[in-house]
Amino acid sequence: MKAKSIIQNIGANLLIAIFGLVGSIILARWLGPSQRGVFATIIIIPSTLQYFVNFGLSSATVYFSAKPNVNKHSIWHNLLVIASIQSLIGILLGWAITNLYLQKYDENVTHLGHLYLLTIPLGLFGMYANYMLQGASFFKTTNMLKCVVPIGYCTGIIILKITNILSITNLVYLQILLQSCYLIVAIFFLYRLILHYFSFQYDFQYTRKLLNYGVKVWFGDVAQLANSRIDQFLIGGFLSSHDLGIYTVAVSIAGFTGIFANAVRTIIVPSVTEKDHLQAQIKSTILLFKSYWIFSIIFHILFAFSLSFLIPFVFGSAYSESIKICQLLVIGSFFINAKTVLAGGIQGMGFPEAISFAEFSGMILSLILTYFLINSMGLIGVSIAISLAYFSQFIGIVFFANKKGIIYKNLLFASQKEINYYLRRFKKNILRK
After folding, report:
1. Is 90 exceeded by the pLDDT of residue 119?
2. Nearest by Cα to 363 from 396, 331, 334
3. Buried b (16+ CB within 10 A) or exposed e, 340-352
4. How far apart are CA 236 and CA 243, in angstroms?
């Protein structure tokens, strides 16, 4: 069942990545590096704040929704109250930060930055509904929900181009529309599959439990978000919009490698959480991680070598500068993707604070290295800094897992017998699917 669910998640994530990549390609070609950089600047603050203000409740929602015998009505209605407060905080912070960050652009760009802040409440409410479904193991539904925005975005870009109204302004409106659709569909399935009826049941004890667990991972979530955004923030501040456009393309391609890691993590958190004792949780974590680890090594090597041909062919010669940058980022992605999977097992075991520590340490290292390398080495220096920070996070998670009984030799090394077993298992599930 877990193998089947992982294959389904990989399929969904692959579909999302393909549509996301296609959208990124056509947007890069039709807008050009400079305009693509301006659009990236507009959306970066609201998308960052959406995760900054959730206080780790996304992870807490999955964790508690996966537990048996919990009052899911109380969980949802507590989340509604909390999300309302978070939305207000996010919009107020976003308004002030947008005024400062976009001051070098014209008033229309600042206005669009303010307008894009509407995606914060839409994203928060939809995200919590989706994570409750994920915690309850409705993976088919969550896979469908994850496809709403990327498929709609790619389709919308094409429609805007065909009708000759493709512009940064209409792209902002498109994102707001898609986030609204995502929220409506997520709540519909939440009530259809889990809650069934509306009955407001607020329980402060659930608020306390959600926040207590969430805060433990919140620092890690913020640090992880900073690690994924700090490079673009600094490029936007120190380099040109052309450089940001080049780097954004490299990041979007390197991010393609995360589809397998995210698919496995979606399964590993509830799978480990539902186990009733520590040894069973350790065994489940090792099994799922090693299955991912073996294929990850092969996949990342092949992907990195393909970039010299892939980027000019798909994006055009204007983005040839992205090749070396993307190859460096793929090296870092190999380690951060492995960390993502292993962190899912540790989170399911009930140790979210370890993830926070690793993420926070990586954020500090990323900030320091990026700041010193961006002026001397430009985009190459930024890519090296990010990859080194990702490697440090992976080592930190492996070290903590080893202390909790997940021996690193069992995680990272496999015998020929184990390799053959995982290859046969993967091939069997692929063919059956």
Report:
1. yes
2. 396
3. bbbbbbbbbbebb
4. 8
pTM score, two decimals? Answer: 0.66
In our burial notation (b when 16+ CB lie closer than 10 A, e otherwise), range 189-214 reads: bbeeebbeeeeeeeeeebbebbbebb
**Contact present, 290 and 414 (Cβ < 8 Å):** yes
22-31, 67-76, 83-92, 149-158: least confidently modelled range: 22-31
Among residues 311, 235, 248, 326, the alpha carbon closest in space to that of 31 is found at: 248
- Cα–Cα distances (Å) from 195 to 76, 182, 205, in that order, read 9, 18, 19
- φ/ψ (deg, to 5) at 214: -65, -40
CB within 8 Å of 374: residues ≥ 6 apart: 234, 235, 238, 239, 381, 382, 385
Closest CA to 344 of 276, 399, 300, 286: 286
User: What is the C-alpha to C-alpha distance for residues 172 and 178, in angstroms, rounded to an integer?
Assistant: 10
Please report how many Cα atoms fall inside a 13 Å half-sphere around the Cα of residue 132, on the Cβ side. 27
Main-chain phi, psi angles of 20, to 5 degrees:
-65, -40
User: Percent helix, strand, coil in the chain (nearest 5)?
Assistant: 90, 0, 10
Q: How far is CA 5 from CA 234, 263, 264, 266, 284, in A?
A: 39, 9, 9, 9, 15
Q: Hey, what are 61's tokens?
A: 């929602």
Q: In a 3-state reduction of DSSP, which class is residue 95?
A: helix
* 285, two tokens: 């974590």
Q: What angle (nearest 5°) sits at the alpha carbon of residue 358, between those of residues 233 and 56?
A: 75
Residue 358 pLDDT more than 90? no
First to last CA, the chain: 12
Q: Kindly tell me if the per-residue pLDDT of 44 is higher than 50.
A: yes
How far apart, in whole angstroms, are the C-alpha atoms of residue 58 and residue 72? Answer: 15
How would you label 380-389 residue by residue, b for 16+ Cβ within 10 Å and e otherwise? ebbbbbbbbb
The rounded distance, in Å, linking the Cα atoms of 85 and 81 is 7
User: Tens digit of pLDDT for each residue in 64-90?
Assistant: 888 777 888 888 989 999 999 999 999
Which residue has better confidence, 91 or 247? 91
Q: Tell me which of 427 and 309 has the higher pLDDT.
A: 309
pLDDT digits (tens, 9 = 90+) for 256-310: 888 788 878 877 887 787 777 888 888 888 888 887 888 888 899 999 999 988 8
